[in-house]
Amino acid sequence: MTATVGNPAPPAGAGETGRPAEAPRTRAIRVLLWSLRHWSVVVAGAILAVAVLWALVPGWFTHANPTAIGATDKLLPPSSAHWFGTDRLGRDQFTRVVYGARASLSGSVVAVLIGVTVGSVFGALAGWFGRWIDALVMRLIDVVLSIPGFLLAITIVVVLGYGIPQAAAAVGITSSAAFARLIRSEVLRAKTSQYVEAAVASGARSPTVLLRHVIPNSLGPTLSLVTIQFGVAIIWIASLSFLGLGAQPPSPEWGRLVADGRNFMASKPYLVVYPALTVAVVVLAGNHLARHFAERQKR
Amino acid sequence: MARHLLKRLAHAVLVLWAAYTLAFILLTALPGNAIANLINNPQNQLTPEDGKILKAFYGLDHPVVVQYLRALDALLHGNLGYSLSNGVKVSDLLGDALPGTLRLTALGFVFGAVIAAAVGVAGSYTRWNWLRTLLRSVPALAASVPSFVVGILILSGFSFELHLIPAVDNGTLLALVGPAFTLGIMISAPLSQVFSASIEATRRQPFVHVLQARGAGERYIFGHGVLRNSSLPVLTMLGLAMGELIAGSVVTEAVFARNGIGQITLNAVNTQDLPVVQGVVLVATTGYVLVNLVVDVVHPLIDPRIRADILAGRAKRIKRSTGATPVGPGVDEAMAPRLPEEVATR
What keywords are annotated for this sequence in UniProt (chain B) (predicted)? Predict the structure, then answer.
């Protein structure tokens, strides 16, 4: 699992950390040892951190304007001035990739939030109240899951219109069915637990028990699905934008950048390769963390 | 057995009806009705009389419930309505595009299954640890790279650089290889993940140790026991992969500029051609549900435990189109809850 693409080798000197066995293991050393053993997790976390910083404070990484058109520097190859080259309008591609992180990442965060929220509401209702509500919600989930996911997202985009928020909502609603199913099963499990029994016995009413005990305890196990869904949402939103159904020009977005560079694929492959690699590396990093969480949870 | 089949069939029809209704509600009944928007769009320069005629033609002058019942009635007669942009019958439009997309998805399916089988088997049986590590990371990699990126890389590498495959669809089988391979890589990720996990779990089962103790070779054990036992969760995954294939063909056909359902979908979305979108959803869902129905039917043929359950009438709501069937010890582990979700989402 450690052979991830695009990840640099472990920090130099990883092999020769001579540690005397009798030395007291301070917290710092333990953290260091853990990071050396799980270097791929650390690298994945670092990649995600950089991507998040790109989205939050793009000005730290580049001083160029992502939409400023430069008539004299069209389609320049990568150089020290333009790391990823420039596009057909002379815009610095690295700057556009950095600023594109905001659309891509915020879109997927919103999508996952919508998925978890809608999924929690339906899943909790079905699991807690059971009977016909459960039956109804489960049938609804079946129907939503029986429509191929990406196609359902496209259909919702038709209704909502183009744009990153709309694409995020479409992806979020589509993914909510999977969340609802998982949270329902977690709620069913929590329902039989002693702390819920205790809460009910001490006179708490349904909404209180649900909100204070059942839902918080059901969300933990969904963490791995959340992290996986995050990567999926990035890919889906990028795919929607690639098809022209997500981010609209001139705002930069990773899938959009790939689509824009596609016409120059034969002569200027770097226009496609860098944004494409960015998506792949970020999603890979996210999925790697997701797997790590999932494995920790199993233990 | 016949009763089981009938039950599954009835369920499939019910799901299809519900999916169609959901699409209808989404596309027609919501406020901001796009057909009306299209007619009212000043750019179309329609006189109010034209608008009335058009509305009558598309049945929009009736209340939504009547519209829905009429659409359902037409659907039962094989009529999916008419395209808003050129008035062609949606069924004709989709019927013309379907063979190309079916060829694409079929070959993509074959590629995906072959890749998954190769990665799964080689990753479990190789003696070299480095190869095992490498193959284990292949699914994660394939799941992380968007299919449009894979498609573009294949297009640029094999068409523009090496000139091995044609860059545009010229009707030959060779032109199909690139897009089908793109689809294959996309669906191979979950398949090989599940297959690897399933092989590992099966190989830990007592019957494998018994066979080993009696002197059977690894190849014999694989062919006579492990393969069949570990293919069950993969079968469920194949059904799920079908949905991804259909949806993935939208992206793949866009990358390779092929005609097909995907291209029609994209055009319909861009022109707000709702009847066509609705038709595409119905056709895609039908394909998805049909494949899952076949998976359901094949399951008891492969697994005698399920067959016994069905014959004894013990089949508790076996599995719905996307649920996973716990089919016995060992397989449970391969179907750890995170796997189906991880898959159902891309």
Answer: Cell membrane, Membrane, Transmembrane, Transmembrane helix, Transport
Q: Using CA atoms, how far apart are residues B4 and B215, in angstroms rounded to an integer?
A: 40
Which CATH superfamily does the domain covering A85-298 fall into? MetI-like (1.10.3720.10)
Domain limits at B55?
Answer: 2-76
Locus of tokens 């060829």: B103
pLDDT < 70 positions in chain B: 1, 29-46, 48, 51, 58-61, 169-171, 313-346
Judged by a CB distance cut-off of 8 A, whether residue B140 touches chain A is yes
* Number of structural domains in chain B: 2
**Per-residue tokens: B155:** 């297009």
Q: Looking only at Cα atoms, what is the longest distance across chain B?
A: 86
Residues whose CB is less than 8 angstroms from the CB of residue A19 and which lie 6 or more positions away in sequence, other chains included = A29, A33
Q: What's the angle, vertex CA A191, arms to CA A185 and CA A195, rounded to 5?
A: 135
Give the mutation candidate from B148, B160, B192, B346 for the A interface (greatest A CB count, under 10 A).
Answer: B148
Task: Convert the pLDDT of each residue in B209-238 to its tens digit.
Answer: 888 888 877 888 888 778 888 888 888 888
Give the Å distances, CA to CA, from A58 to A55, A63, A84, A101, A164.
6, 9, 16, 9, 18
Mutation target among B41, B158, B186, B342 for the A interface, most CBs of A within 10 A: B342
Kindly report, residue by residue over B173-183, the tens digit of the pLDDT.
Answer: 778 888 899 99
Distance from CA of A270 to the nearest CA of B (A): 12
Residues of B in contact with A276 (CB under 8 A): 146, 149, 152-153
Question: What is the value of pTM for the model shown?
Answer: 0.81
Residues B99 and B134 in one domain: yes
| In a shared domain, residues B121 and B267 | yes
Domain ranges in chain A? 85-298
B96 and B26 in a common domain: no
B122 touches chain A (CB under 8 A): no
**Do residues B162 and B291 both lie within one domain?**
yes
Using an 8 Å CB-CB cutoff, list chain A residues near B285.
146-148
ipTM over cut 0.85: no
Check whether residue B167 and residue B291 sit in a common domain.
yes
Q: Are residue B198 and residue B126 in the same domain, yes or no?
A: yes
Distance CA A119, CA A126 (A): 10
- Using DSSP's 3-state secondary structure scheme, residue B82 falls into strand
B119 domain-assigned = yes
Does A151 sit within 8 Å of B15, measured CB to CB?
no
Q: Which residues of B touch A279 (CB under 8 A)?
A: 145-146, 149
Note whether B133 contacts A: Cβ–Cβ < 8 A: yes
Of B22, B134, B336, the CB nearest to A3: B134
Closest Cβ opposite residue B269 in set A157, A231, A279: A157
